[in-house]
Amino acid sequence: MRANAAHYELIAPTNLDDVLATLATGGYAPIAGGTEIMVALSAGRLPKKPLVSLQHLKELRFIETTPEAYVIGAGTTFSDIRHHAGLHADLPLLTSAASWTGSIANQNRGTLGGNLVNASPAADSPPALLAYEATLKLVSAAGTRTMPYTAFHLGYKKTALQPGELVYSITVPRLWTGYRSYTRKVGTRNAQAISKIALAALVLVENEKISDIRIGAASLREMPMRCSATEKALRGQSVTPQAIQAARAALASEARPIDDIRSTAAYRAAVAGNLLEEFLQQLSH
Ligand SMILES: Cc1cc2nc3c(=O)[nH]c(=O)nc-3n(C[C@H](O)[C@H](O)[C@H](O)COP(=O)(O)OP(=O)(O)OC[C@H]3O[C@@H](n4cnc5c(N)ncnc54)[C@H](O)[C@@H]3O)c2cc1C
């Protein structure tokens, strides 16, 4: 049954320390853009816990550029990301993901941190962040810690966040000179559709051989997935029909696609192989 928003307490401290102190009491859940939380509320699935808003915290909404990396505050919206010239130039996998996340209204409110913590296997930014080998900075009243993003997702909608902890920022290396990138989302429509399957990949080809490759995928497991076996099958190889077939076989063996209302596991497995092949075929042009 649809819940009544008036039955939920919402507080909005104006600084991060107050938010962290509030979360440390154990009595509150964070809300950022609210684009996931309001859907859960409407569906009557939102636990009856008071909410503490992150939405107006300037400390969480920033994009810093260093020579080696971009540091993106967890409260940065998809609109901030897709309109950032540096990110466009250096991290096209991420800006593409931001540009096809929901509608413009969604992108104006939805945050990168909320996308990661919501931890849907079908979410758009995780494949890009897996390919870019992002790291996360987590913060709580007790202090901060960092972890590779690959260690963040533990299972279906399960993350390594501890109670009282927030994602503070996402650091994405920008040292991809010479790499080619590929990303494609397959959904019911080109816009306003959660993906059935998505792939994001980076590859470095030297002397006609793949010297480095990183592939992230959505909906191939119960959580966002780095396709390590597929990468291993391709590293050191020339892009031949045999290498493409071996890579498809490696992807098929490591994928356990989800089966849900948006698509079947069999469709996802077949299309993931096709996307991988499309990506590899493009390398010969
Ligand atoms: C119509 C519609 C279309 C959508 N389309 C897409 C799509 O195409 N692709 C896609 O990937 N997603 C899509 N979404 C999902 C959603 O917009 C994204 O997941 C968005 O990034 C969520 O961010 P938010 O700030 O709104 O999160 P919120 O709803 O505020 O929070 C989501 C979860 O994250 C937690 N949280 C938020 N920020 C933090 C933080 N910094 N630290 C710790 N916990 C935090 C909250 O407690 C909550 O559990 C869609 C949603 C809607 C309603």
* Number of helical elements: 11
Q: Averaging pLDDT over every residue, what do you get?
A: 95
> How is the biggest beta sheet arranged?
5 strands, antiparallel
What class, by secondary structure content? alpha+beta
Distance between the first and last residues' Cα: 54 Å
Beta-strand residue fraction: 15-25%
Helix content: 25-40%
Q: State the low-pLDDT regions, or none.
A: none
Radius of gyration: 19 Å
Shape: globular
> What hetero molecules are bound to the protein chains?
flavin-adenine dinucleotide
Element order: H for helix, E for strand: EHEHEEEHHHHHHEEEEEEEEEHHH
Strand order of the largest sheet: 4-5-10-6-7
- Counting DSSP E segments of at least 2 residues, the number of strands comes to 14
List the helices and strands and how they pair.
Elements: E1 10-11, H1 16-24, E2 29-31, H2 37-42, E3 51-53, E4 63-65, E5 69-73, H3 78-82, H4 85-90, H5 92-99, H6 104-109, H7 112-118, H8 125-131, E6 135-140, E7 143-148, E8 153-155, E9 158-159, E10 166-173, E11 180-186, E12 197-206, E13 209-218, E14 225-226, H9 228-234, H10 241-254, H11 265-282
Parallel strand pairs: 1-3, 2-3
Antiparallel strand pairs: 4-5, 5-10, 6-7, 6-10, 8-9, 11-12, 12-13, 13-14
Helix pairs in contact: 9-10, 10-11
Characterise this structure.
There is one protein chain. The protein is α+β, with helices and mostly antiparallel strands and 285 residues long. The chain has 11 helices and 14 strands. The strands form 4 sheets. The chain has a 5-stranded antiparallel beta sheet. Strands 11-12-13-14 form a 4-stranded antiparallel beta sheet, with helices on both faces. The protein is globular. The mean pLDDT is 95. The structure holds flavin-adenine dinucleotide. The site of flavin-adenine dinucleotide (FAD) has 28 residues, from strand 2, helix 2, helix 6, helix 7 and strand 10.
